[in-house]
Write a structure and sequence with these properties.
three-stranded antiparallel β-sheet, single chain, 3 strands, alpha+beta, 79 residues
Protein backbone atom coordinates (compact mmCIF):
# COMPACT_ATOMS: atom_id res chain seq x y z
CA UNK A 1 0.00 0.00 0.00
CA UNK A 2 1.15 3.50 -0.67
CA UNK A 3 0.95 6.46 1.71
CA UNK A 4 -2.45 7.73 0.55
CA UNK A 5 -4.03 4.27 0.68
CA UNK A 6 -2.88 3.89 4.28
CA UNK A 7 -4.10 7.36 5.25
CA UNK A 8 -7.48 6.62 3.64
CA UNK A 9 -7.98 3.84 6.20
CA UNK A 10 -8.49 6.43 8.94
CA UNK A 11 -11.22 8.93 9.74
CA UNK A 12 -9.63 12.34 10.07
CA UNK A 13 -10.79 15.37 12.02
CA UNK A 14 -9.33 18.72 13.01
CA UNK A 15 -6.97 18.67 15.96
CA UNK A 16 -3.47 19.39 17.23
CA UNK A 17 -0.77 16.77 16.72
CA UNK A 18 1.03 15.68 19.88
CA UNK A 19 4.43 15.90 18.14
CA UNK A 20 3.80 19.03 16.06
CA UNK A 21 1.69 21.42 18.17
CA UNK A 22 3.27 24.41 16.44
CA UNK A 23 1.53 23.40 13.20
CA UNK A 24 -1.79 24.36 14.80
CA UNK A 25 -5.05 22.75 13.72
CA UNK A 26 -4.48 20.02 11.10
CA UNK A 27 -6.06 16.70 10.07
CA UNK A 28 -5.51 14.24 12.93
CA UNK A 29 -6.68 10.94 14.39
CA UNK A 30 -6.95 9.95 18.03
CA UNK A 31 -4.14 7.54 18.94
CA UNK A 32 -4.69 7.42 22.70
CA UNK A 33 -7.13 8.62 25.34
CA UNK A 34 -5.75 9.67 28.70
CA UNK A 35 -7.74 9.95 31.90
CA UNK A 36 -5.91 12.32 34.25
CA UNK A 37 -7.13 12.10 37.81
CA UNK A 38 -10.05 14.47 38.40
CA UNK A 39 -9.64 16.02 34.94
CA UNK A 40 -11.91 14.08 32.58
CA UNK A 41 -10.58 12.68 29.34
CA UNK A 42 -7.80 13.97 27.07
CA UNK A 43 -7.14 12.83 23.51
CA UNK A 44 -3.66 12.34 22.10
CA UNK A 45 -3.90 13.11 18.40
CA UNK A 46 -1.50 12.44 15.52
CA UNK A 47 -1.15 14.16 12.14
CA UNK A 48 -0.77 12.40 8.79
CA UNK A 49 3.05 12.41 8.87
CA UNK A 50 3.09 10.94 12.38
CA UNK A 51 0.56 8.25 11.45
CA UNK A 52 2.75 7.22 8.51
CA UNK A 53 5.79 7.11 10.84
CA UNK A 54 3.86 4.98 13.36
CA UNK A 55 2.68 2.66 10.59
CA UNK A 56 6.32 2.23 9.55
CA UNK A 57 7.26 1.26 13.11
CA UNK A 58 4.39 -1.25 13.21
CA UNK A 59 5.42 -2.70 9.84
CA UNK A 60 9.04 -3.13 10.97
CA UNK A 61 7.97 -4.73 14.26
CA UNK A 62 5.73 -7.18 12.41
CA UNK A 63 8.60 -8.12 10.08
CA UNK A 64 10.95 -8.68 13.03
CA UNK A 65 8.44 -10.89 14.81
CA UNK A 66 7.46 -12.62 11.56
CA UNK A 67 3.83 -11.70 12.09
CA UNK A 68 1.36 -10.20 9.65
CA UNK A 69 1.27 -6.43 9.29
CA UNK A 70 -2.15 -4.92 8.77
CA UNK A 71 -2.22 -1.15 8.13
CA UNK A 72 -4.89 1.08 9.59
CA UNK A 73 -4.54 0.08 13.21
CA UNK A 74 -2.59 2.89 14.83
CA UNK A 75 -4.45 3.55 18.05
CA UNK A 76 -6.61 0.44 17.64
CA UNK A 77 -6.84 -0.01 21.41
CA UNK A 78 -9.44 2.79 21.29
CA UNK A 79 -12.00 0.70 19.43
Amino acid sequence: MDREQILDLYEWSDGVCFRHPGAGIVDTIVVKKLHPRDDGEREVRACRDCVIAMEGIRREAAARSESEYEPGRVGECLE
